[in-house]
Amino acid sequence: MAQEIYISGIGIAPEVIASVVSRAVEEVEGIASVGVRDLATNLVSMFQSRSTASAPAVEAEVVDDKLALTVHVVVFFGYPFKKLAETVRAATAHVIDAQVGVDVARVDVCIDGIVFPKE
Fewer CB in 10 Å around end: N or C, the chain? Predict the structure, then answer.
């Protein structure tokens, strides 16, 4: 397990923050997934002799006693990126305030993939 994040007198495992944020962001219309969930990539990594660690879906760090978050998402085609990022930021800040009770310094949104409709 990764080292805990200490903020406002509590220690929180990064996985807990990632779970809370992921659940909220997955509810945003236009989000296909939080983090990259590519079956082919996952299968290849299972059969490789060396382990390839993928980037976490949600990264968190403490900046001036506030959380700075980076959320990696895959989006559906047809949703404007800027509007999606704004909605992800709002959902993330809301869930962190409601569940963790700390302020959010910033939420960076990384669009790591896009899902196109089948024709």
Answer: C
